[in-house]
Amino acid sequence: MFGRTDEMIQITKNGVCIEGKEIPLYSGAVHYWRIAREHWWDVLDCVKEMGFRIVETYIPWSVHEYEEGKYDFGDVVPEKDLDCFLSVCEQKGLKILVRPGPHINAEMTDFGFPEWILGDDEIQARSPMGTGVVYPFVAGPFPIPSYASKKLFQKFTVYFERILPILKKHDYPDGGIIGIQADNEMCYFFRDSAYTLDYCGDAIRQYRDMLSMKYKGIAQLNKVYHSTYSGYDDICPPTQFGAKKKEDLPYYLDWAEYKEYQILKGLAFYAGLIKKSKMNAFVFHNCAYQNYTPISLQRSEAIPGMDLVGIDAYPEGWDLAVLRERIRYMASGSILPFVPEFGCGSYFDRGYALSADQEEYGYLYAFMNGMKAVNFYMLADRDRWFACPVTNDGKKREPYYSMLQGIINMLHTSGLAEYHRKPDVLIYKNYGMGRLKQIYALFDPNQLQSNCLMQGPEFPRELFQPDIDLGITMDADLTHWGKEVWIDMVCNYLLKRGIDYNVSDQYLSEEALMEYPVVFASMYDFLDEKEAVKLDAYARNGGMLIVGPELPVYNQFFQKYDMDTSHWHYVKDIDALAGIIPEYKPLYWLEDPEIEITVHRKSEHEILFMANKSGKDKAVTMYFEGNAAFYGLWRASDSIADNKLAIEIRAHTIYIWKVVRGRS
Amino acid sequence: MIDKDFITKNLDPVVWSRLGELLQLMTPVTKKLHILTDQDKVIKACDTCRNIMDINRNIEMLNEDFANTLFANDDSLEEVWVYSLDALKEYYTVIQKRENYECDADHYLSYIEDSIEQSNGFHIFRRNPKKQNILRLLANKIQELPPDSILLIQYKQEDKEFFHVILTIKNSRITQVETLDGRKLADVEKTHELPLYVWSFSLDSYRIICSNLEKKQRL
């Protein structure tokens, strides 16, 4: 159990524990207001028949408060009868996750914000030029709201209090609601670069508050900034990179930190609002896709009142490299590795939908890499979404329906939620380098594209990178601040050798860090002093800390800092790795880098995943020690074998077995 | 032209999954070279394939002759954009002004494309004339139709259907987007009770051949 130990509903490492009974968190989305009311029953019957016990829905502000102060909960439009929909879910025996926003997206006009909210100058985020910041959506461009806007908080509170009686009526144990989401995909509406926004009044005040808390006195700030400000009100945020040397960097890095802070403060507001309502439901949030600045899953999950945070996943076809990193990142740092939106079907302006085979491959690959909980988004077709397992009028859509039904059935019968993957190796990314690369821009043009139908002018990010010698080493991959050359090198090395690993960064707790015998940490010339102490303690307490491509010599303020790195193993390039990492003997191995194997364990029991990542069918021999019985759970057949097993595995598929060792 | 409350329904997974491929055929992504300038010098040049180029020239020399030389040296290069940071900031100031928040998406897309051509400080050189964006093409076509009608757009490849979409148009605005998804066209037409127009294309070896708009007789 974690966190909410005195609560009726608790998050566990296996799922959700409701009054002492643990259930896996497998749910799927259905949007009541987008389905004709008479079809609610049929759609939910299909959802249940697929094996789901939890259903999820947004509760969009613009749908229910159609004019300021005018509400519709089914009196005008029958499909808006939230109370009735929740009752129908309960009648079907389904538990419910609700997501009241304010941000919805869901391909809704204005992303589910009421028009009068977005039209309010006090609510809009601001560009460095002082204008609003347009999101060019195909249903109409709209100005992006600010997460710092106090007026937005006030207005949303009014709406939330209006829907609260319905939510409380259906809160567990009186009703089926077991989870409620605090806002949605907070990442500046995908405009997550440093200088695109937010220069609105509330944001600038909040920025100065953060500086004040960080430096605890203007003198200390002036010392770090090499400045002469008389007070925090004199400080204006940077609108572009202007540092000439490394000592100038703290001012810019603080802006990157502020952009993280704004999200955390906004999220804390929404989580707090829900908490104040005294609902029994757990509180969760979904990060859109980032595991780098301005997002941190661990920091979001540490917000008071927040119980669970996950990252969404919309994999593209057969290429699952991004999914691998994302899931392994959650596997190291979250209470319960949860994908709150796993693409099921597709948004109408994506240009394509995945085939059922591609979806199956993505879902199983995520489970293989440590996903423990998932919300399939969407289960039923709706306006501006297609290729779901259930049609909008409650019919099964094959082959999607059978594929997902099969997976849910396998998950329940295998008890996979109780099995855990535990790699020995951790990849520890450098969040600070991400910040530095993010702020390193002379201009951050707002993206004028959204999906395949709105393709406005595009300006390459590289054009605005200033090429200044700051006197420190930067990561060579400037294409995106979420990537690092040294990290990619290490990951490729491990993948080729079949060595399983998780991914994290400086926000991982010391206790969690200690669980890994080997940690690869990317290092550059500068490192936060606290971070240096934490990693050094890990190395001195028996952990193998392998660092590169540089050794740090400066602290976070770019002052010389003597770090005792005598217990660290420094590796500049790949050639040096072989001599350092310990001899690794996996439980199962084979000599084909295109085949990936992962083992999940529950005491002496094992579930074995095998992924054929290539586009070719393969015949492989898997080796292990001793005798084992393999019981096929997915695509695989039963076998009993000594020391090796011959397997034919189809291209781009994942096979799963339950394995019992030492049984003839 | 696109109603902000338009809905989609009955999107066939196979048919609608070809939308991206179709758009790519109609308006292929082209390689552009962006040259960022300041006062009289080049700050940086980078193409849309992320290649940084060293262009050591005075700004006055970044003219049509220079662009033609670049086109001659690189067959894949289609456009050269030259602009200053100030011009870019001015462009973003203009296109993000409050009065734009109410426009239709297609109008906004055309507006941000046109504004760049008209902005001071932007010089754009093209190998070929600029292609119209798909939404503008569609808007022009809808202007030819009665204000309330249905438009079936279909693409065929070797006489087999590749893609289709049925648009419901009310007051000259698209209010609904759908595909047949297993239904007969006659049934769809009956539910709408609006005149049906067909705009068909054939995909012939990566060329798109457009037919004239024709009014379909009531089925």
Describe the structure.
The complex is a heterodimer of chains A (about 675) and B (about 220). By secondary structure, chain A is α/β, with parallel strands linked by helices. Chain A has 4 domains: about 10-200 and about 255-420, TIM Barrel (Alpha-Beta Barrel); about 205-235, no CATH class; about 425-575, no CATH class; about 595-660, Sandwich (Immunoglobulin-like). In chain A, helix 6 crosses helix 8, helix 8 crosses helix 13 (about 430-440) and helix 11 runs parallel beside helix 12. The longest helix of chain A has 28 residues, at about 250-275. The two termini of chain A are about 35 Å apart. Chain B starts with a strand and ends with a strand. In chain B, strand 3 and strand 4 form a beta hairpin. Chain B is an alpha+beta fold. The mean pLDDT of chain B is about 90. Chain B folds into 2 domains: about 1-25 and about 140-215, no CATH class; about 30-125, no CATH class. Chain B is built from 7 helices and 12 strands. In chain B, the strands form 2 sheets. In chain B, strands 1, 7, 8, 9, 10, 11 and 12 form a 7-stranded mixed sheet that branches. In chain B, about 30% of the residues lie in helices and about 35% in strands. The interface between A and B is large, with 55 and 53 residues.
